[in-house]
Design goal:
cell membrane, globular, mainly alpha, transmembrane helix, 12 helices, 245 residues
């Protein structure tokens, strides 16, 4: 599994694509947080990073599928998946190696955003006077969200040999998980009946809960369940494709 992890990690940064993807993520966040007037933290009148945690999930909808789209799609396209399956590694090791490598890249993309925290902390009326508990919880929520999107992206890449198709399927599926259930709960036919349960089925509900700074075990279990489900589906998809080839 370690060899798969290293190969996947190096492959992402072996071309300019990986650096550009992370750079665009950071630039997009910086523009929304410090330049565009409607979302600028400098015009908010108070020091917090709420806009970062509100905007990041939508930027993740594009960034993470771009990170994961080639994970298995390129293996199928080049024919190396069949070769990989003959090595003394289990299906779970293959899936986990890919997932952990992509997850590490998500962490690397998030680390520079700590600069925003430092900047806002110093620009506040009383330097350092921030709600650190809420911000810490929001970062944990963002990491769990990123890992969940990564698991969805890995699954999307496992069902096709076309990286572009994997990218589009990942965007659509991540959007449904993040916003689809929440939007569906607002349909009049569900109001006062199943709306709460529909919201709970979506990622947005649990992400918003953790972002308040309260780490609830139910939210953690939800995110872990989404990851486990998507990685399990990835394993099943890989096995089916190899057996059919």
């Amino acid at each position: 599994m370690l060899a798969i992890y290293k190969k996947e990690f190096r492959q992402f940064f072996s071309s300019i694509t990986g650096y550009v993807a992370i750079l665009l993520f950071l630039v997009a966040n910086a523009l929304f947080l410090f330049v565009f007037p409607d979302t600028s933290l400098l015009d908010a009148g108070y020091a917090n990073l709420d806009n970062l945690f509100n905007l990041a999930p939508y930027i993740f909808l594009l960034l993470i599928p771009a990170i994961t789209m080639r994970s298995f799609a390129d293996e199928f396209k080049s024919g190396t998946m069949e070769l990989l399956s003959t090595h003394p590694v289990s299906w779970w090791q293959i899936v986990w190696g890919k997932f952990l490598a992509s997850g590490s890249i998500v962490i690397i993309a998030l680390l520079p955003t700590l600069v925003y925290y430092i900047a806002i902390s110093q620009l506040s009326a009383i330097p350092g006077n921030l709600d650190n508990g809420s911000i810490s919880g929001a970062y944990i929520g963002l990491l769990l969200l990123g890992f969940s999107f990564t698991a969805i992206g890995i699954w999307s890449s496992s069902i096709t040999s076309n990286a572009v198709v994997a990218f589009l399927v990942a965007i659509f599926t991540c959007f449904i998980f993040y916003y689809g259930f929440d939007a569906l709960s607002k349909v009049p036919v569900f109001e006062g009946k199943a709306d709460y349960f529909l919201q709970m089925a979506g990622i947005r509900f649990h992400y918003a809960s953790i972002s308040r700074g309260v780490i609830d075990s139910r939210d953690i279990v939800y995110f872990l369940s989404v990851m486990a489900l998507m990685l399990y589906l990835s394993k099943i998809s890989l096995q089916r494709k190899i057996w059919q080839s």
